[in-house]
UniProtKB/TrEMBL annotation:
InterPro entries: MeTrfase_TrmA_AS, NA-bd_OB-fold, SAM-dependent_MTases_sf, U5_MeTrfase_fam. The keyword Nucleotide-binding does not apply. It comes from the Bacteria. The active site is at 408 (nucleophile), 408. S-adenosyl-L-methionine binds at residues 286, 315, 336, 381. GO terms for biological process: methylation. This is 23S rRNA (Uracil(1939)-C(5))-methyltransferase RlmD. GO terms for molecular function: methyltransferase activity. The lineage of its organism: Bacteria, Bacillati, Bacillota, Clostridia, Peptostreptococcales. The keyword Manganese does not apply. Keywords: Methyltransferase, S-adenosyl-L-methionine, Transferase.
Amino acid sequence: MKRKDIIEFEVDKMEFGGTTVSMLGNKEIHMKGGISGQKVKAAVKKARSKKAEVKMLEILEKSPIETANPCKHFGICGGCTILSVPYEKQLEIKERQVMDLFLNQDIFGFQFLGIEGSPQDRLYRNKMEYTFGDEMKDGPLTLGLHKKGRHIDILTVDGCYLVDQDFIKVLTSTVEYFDEKKLPYYRCMSHKGYLRNLVVRKGINTNELMVNIVTSSQEDFDMTEYKEMLLNLETQAEIVSILHTINDGLADAVQCDELRVLHGRDYINEELLGLKFTISPFSFFQTNTKGAEKLYSIARDFVGDHENKVVFDLYSGTGTIGQVMAGAAKKVYGIELIEEAVVAANNNAKLNGLTNCEFVAGDVAKTVKNFKVKPDLIIVDPPRPGVHKDAIRDISGFGAKEIVYISCNPKTLVLDLVEFKKYGYEVEKVKCMDMFPNTPHVETIVKLKKVN
Ligand code: SAH
């Protein structure tokens, strides 16, 4: 086997993160994508004596486990990769993947509580960020998600299973409206054009909708008619916020140079486990509201009795987890890198009448050691790269009896757990929670106990 060879094989094992490993003769074939049991055609990118890296070209035969009805975009859209696998089976696969990662690091002897599914495996997202473009060169205007493996081709995802009809209505009416106006979409290579993104957010428990149209400043288009069009849509939720964001940033990401409020307010409200949160157009908020309620409930169960305890909420975002604990706790301290999120967290705590929360801005690895108080319990919820080694050292240095680790990346989680062990923390129990059905992601909650 050599570079550029075309090979055919049956996909064997799905690893966490959406990659697969299969055996062909005595070679391990590593590939991005694929579902166990599929027969595929692939091009060899790199070949060594025992291993090869390949790129999938075509699915020759679908897998016997692909018995669910996917949406009409499946296979073309870069969004959901395992939508064709029934939900129960998806959960089984993810649970196995997380267990394997633990075993690979020789982490044994804990209580494994399995995996919990998302309350909804479809229509669960509360936010979508769509991009304007076209599906083929000089084709009609499209608005939606990138095609699988493509940077520029955009698919109008009007049959998407991840969101409810309000999202679809706003999406389709927006693309129709602007297609008629013949405004150019923004090209991320030449940086020319006007229409960039459409961001839709919904307060699932409050029934409030935010529509944010993002453009460059290269045209001076009057959005009044567009706003009226949106307000006349028969959405099930109330549109309480219509925004126009001007973004001239060169990166292919939604940034804000100027925010214009076209209708209502510049935020929506959401409720989680009886607490209120205001969500501003650019702030982080868990994208599966009902799933987040379940995730935080599991975290609260793992924490157990926190009556009158001092709790650290590290990587606190908008302070959701800390506030869920604050009702019973004596005091909650949070650290979060993004200043805006810290301001939101403190405001939210006030809104909820919680006077025992204090969220501060900073990098956990640099600032956690500055806390002079001694926590009884530490909760960490880091981003995908996990907890910095210095932070693990400093967090352990407080000598708290218990640490609850919430992870969106079990690969870095297990490495961090090995590191925590050096400081005397052992894994007591583990539970997975699927916040992102139909995608390869999964959350894992771990309780660590200080043993020496
Ligand atoms: N606990 C929150 C947010 C979790 S997401 C929730 O459940 O909503 C992880 C958060 O860590 C993000 O808000 C990110 O901005 C923040 N973050 C990333 N690196 C950080 C660092 N080095 N120090 C502190 N916060 C960080």
